[in-house]
Amino acid sequence: MNIRSGHVLVVGDLILDRYWKGDTNRISPEAPVPVVAVRAVDEFLGGAANVAANIASIGGNVTLIGAVGNDADGATIRDVSSSKGVAPDFVVLEGLSTIVKLRVVSQQQQLVRIDFEPPELPSVGPEILDRVRTHLADHQVLMISDYAKGSAACAPELISLARAAGKTVVVDPKNIDFSIYSGASLLTPNLSEFVRAAGPCGSLSVLKSRALELTNDLGLGAILITRGAEGMTLVEASGDCIHLDAHGHEVFDVTGAGDTVCAVVAACLSGGGKLPEAIQLANTAAGLVVSKFGTATVSKAELEAATMRVAQPPQGALSIPELLDLRQTARTRGERVVMTNGCFDVLHEGHVRFLQTARARGDRLIVALNTDESVRKLKGATRPLNCLASRIAVLAALECVDWVVSFEEETPQALIEKILPDLLVKGGDYEQAQIVGRDAVVAAGGQVCVLPYLEGCSTTSLIARLRQLEGVE
Question: In the chain, where are the structural domains located?
Fold first, then answer.
């Protein structure tokens, strides 16, 4: 994926986000409201302009189309867009005021938002379509940012035009009637928007089924539902579903987070990225932008640094929640996860050969270890010879082992059902039907196999030899 090589054409509603910031030290004598002494005025790109700014901020090439008034606010959107590396091509309407959202902020808290916008935007569909026809051939992705202000009212014509030209179409919808976005490659509603269109979703399974129904009914390629603190869920027309948990950043301000998600997905797709890869990067970007104040963007450097942290996950001993997060990340990347389990009390050559062979069959290897109490129940009161911490330390030091996790139960059945590895491996002379967790893994589309142990190597024989030597001495 090379974001710099792609070009995104963004079409939608252009908004200027203005912030009045100041101190609040008293209540007005005229009414029971705070008095804000304004000390600073900040202006940011909003709506489709914020989508375009996010694309440019991470290194993408972007052209922006929308309608503004012939006024100072419209000129500000154009000038700020250009300064951020966005190529603007606006429909300028005489006698129309540019849409402005004014937020009054004191001590990092928004006190009130005041919207300045015409009650009804004149029809600009023909002018928008003319500009899209001019630019479409030079762009791989058409991004429609619909804030229900009028600039994206011609969405059906835009989608038809772009798909006929073989372009990918990403739509951030605001219209409750999703049918006007029929034929789009990807629809990116937030949860409340999706529920308004599809009906209440009391569980994740209902959400998935309704999303799949919508993709099929409307001829969509996929629906990506952003769910705030619950992360995001991608449902493709094929029935494939990916859920990503939200990244654990402190949430400071969610303004524009949806714009960031759409922007990163569109930029990735324009650079040849695949959808699972694109939403993974978008999820990372969303986690960064919500920690900022106001309508913010994510820089290329910030995203690269965050991606490096995700790309190089921790190795060694993990808690079960940490392991489940990493397993989901691996699934999103298309990595094959292998899992095995055992006591691994006295590590020997047979164990190492077995683990190396298991790791060679995938991209990640998880080793689940019985706790000391669990080993005693299986092997007797004299075992284990090495405590859990020692066994974890030795296994985690092996290059072929990615993650080590312990379980207290006599069998790893419950843990396997949570992780659902792509390949479950056991060593020795097991029959597949005897392997704990087999049914759950197979039912989820995974595989199970038995690898032979190295002849002459076993913990039991090593212990016997040690006792023999002790007797000789």
Answer: 3-311, 316-472
Of 102, 100, 106, 104, give the one whose Cα is nearest residue 114.
Answer: 102
* pLDDT digit string, tens, across residues 162-208: 999 999 999 999 988 999 999 999 999 999 999 999 998 888 889 99
At 428 the pLDDT is 73
How many whole angstroms separate alpha carbon 266 and alpha carbon 414?
39
Selection from 324, 327, 334, 319 nearest residue 404 by Cα: 319
Catalytic residue among 13, 17, 259, 345: 259
Q: Give me the CATH code for the 316-472 domain, please.
A: 3.40.50.620
Given pLDDT bands bounded at 50, 70 and 90, which one contains residue 405? very high
The reported pLDDT for the residue numbered 26 is: 93
Phi, psi for 353 (deg, rounded to 5):
-60, -45
CATH homologous superfamily, domain 3-311: Ribokinase (3.40.1190.20)
Cβ-contact 427, 451 below 8 angstroms: yes
DSSP one-letter code for 411: S
pLDDT the model gives residue 98: 95
Query: What dihedral angle (degrees, nearest 10) is formed by the CA atoms of 44, 45, 47, 53?
Result: -130
Q: Would 3-311 and 316-472 be classified into the same CATH topology?
A: no
Specify whether 259 is catalytic.
yes
